[in-house]
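> call design_seq(struct)
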C-alpha cells in the first residue's frame, strides 16, 4: 500500500472506520506503537477489501491460489471464525477438515506475502 499510496498510505489505504477503531484502541492502551499494531485479524479483511486496495492485493492473492474477491472474503471469514474458535477455547472445536482449510489458507496468505 505504501508503494501505491506513498507516505499517505494510512489515510488513503485504510478505511476511516478501521483507522478510528485502531486509534481508540491505541489511546485506551496508552501505547506508542503504530495504530496498525492494534488491528484484529478481521480488520485486515476490511483493509484488503477496501476499494482502493483490492486491485493491489488481487493479483497476488490470485497467484497464491485464491479465487475471486467473493471467494477470498468467504475464505477469510471462515478462517477468522476458526481462529476465534481456537482462541476462545469453546466447546465446539474445529474438525480435521477445518484445520486442513486453516493450514491451506495460511499457506496461501504466506505465498501472497512472499511474492511481493
Amino acid at each position: 500500500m505504501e508503494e501505491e499510496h506513498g507516505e499517505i498510505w494510512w489515510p488513503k489505504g485504510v478505511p476511516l472506520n478501521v483507522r478510528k477503531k485502531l486509534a481508540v484502541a491505541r489511546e485506551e492502551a496508552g501505547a506508542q506503537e503504530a495504530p496498525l499494531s492494534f488491528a484484529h485479524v478481521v480488520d485486515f479483511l476490511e483493509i484488503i477489501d477496501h476499494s482502493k486496495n483490492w486491485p493491489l492485493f488481487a493479483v497476488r492473492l490470485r497467484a497464491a491460489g485464491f479465487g475471486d474477491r467473493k471467494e477470498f472474503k468467504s475464505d477469510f471469514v471462515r478462517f477468522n471464525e476458526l481462529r476465534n474458535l481456537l482462541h476462545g477455547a469453546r466447546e465446539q472445536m474445529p474438525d480435521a477438515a477445518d484445520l486442513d482449510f486453516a493450514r491451506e489458507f495460511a499457506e496461501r496468505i504466506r505465498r501472497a506475502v512472499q511474492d511481493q
